[in-house]
Design goal:
- The protein has one domain: Rossmann fold.
- Helices cover 47% and strands 16% of the residues.
- The protein is built from 8 helices and 7 strands; from the N terminus they run βαβαβαβαβααβααβ.
- It has a 7-stranded parallel sheet with strand order 3-2-1-4-5-6-7, with helices on both faces.
- Helix 1 runs parallel beside helix 2, helix 3 runs parallel beside helix 4 and helix 4 runs parallel beside helix 6.
- The structure holds NADP nicotinamide-adenine-dinucleotide phosphate.
- The site of NADP nicotinamide-adenine-dinucleotide phosphate (NAP) has 32 residues, from helix 1, strand 2 and helix 4.
Length: 245
Amino acid sequence: MLNGKVAVVTGASRGIGASVARKLASQGADVAIIYCGSEDKAQAVKESIISEYGVKAFAYKCDVADLNACTETVKQITADLGGVDILVNNAGVTRDNLLVMMGEEDFDKVVDTNLKGTFNMIKVCARGFIRKKKGKIINISSVSGLSGIAGQSNYSASKAGVIGLTKAVAKELGGKNVCCNAIAPGFIMTDMTKELGSEEEFLKAIPLKRLGKTEDVANLAAFLADEASDYITGEVIRIDGGLAM
Ligand code: NAP
């Protein structure tokens, strides 16, 4: 259980992040819901968490690619909820294209959000974790960062970068009792995968013969946030129905 803990979930206005925020709240954590553009959705997630689970929940607009915004947001979270115990770096974007067609801005946008955003949030939360000698960092990577996917050179690079970052942070903060792990989802049904085309094609490649649900990822995040996983750090856990074996 996560009673008395404060969890920060980036990109929690919809998709995987909203499910993770709900799951952590269902385990008793107070939650900070970070969003970038979807204010109404973030407020709706906040209201439903408060009414369903009776924990504290606040929504914060913050572009994770902006270090100053992250610093100010974590200051406000600390004032509202009293510090951070669990950080879930879930905010992410895609700008898929073939390498030769990909604009520089599409590479920068994806790397700035997915990789630099993860670095920014870890950086601003790290001092609090070090002071408490306890903390859980969960970074959402992707099977795209493990295997590479054609048409996703920007996204694959950002998600592989998240894995390297996860391992470096696990080594750097391990002595302070801070665990840092990555989750590598396969195809999870969200807005991000809506446009990807024929479901049947994907199902052929997935041994478990179904796409993932956001709740599948949320359950794993809850395990990595809980003391049940206190001896796991620097790990990358695929959750993909066997896709990237
Ligand atoms: P999604 O439904 O598109 O939601 C993306 C979330 O990220 C939204 O809440 C969005 O907030 C937020 N976000 C985007 N840019 C942001 C920024 N600069 N600052 C703060 N928040 C920002 O995506 P999803 O499918 O749930 O994906 C969540 C994570 O899982 C991503 O890191 C993604 O790469 C990863 N992942 C997903 C899959 C999949 O199959 N779905 C597979 C592997 C990995 P606003 O709406 O408020 O802008």
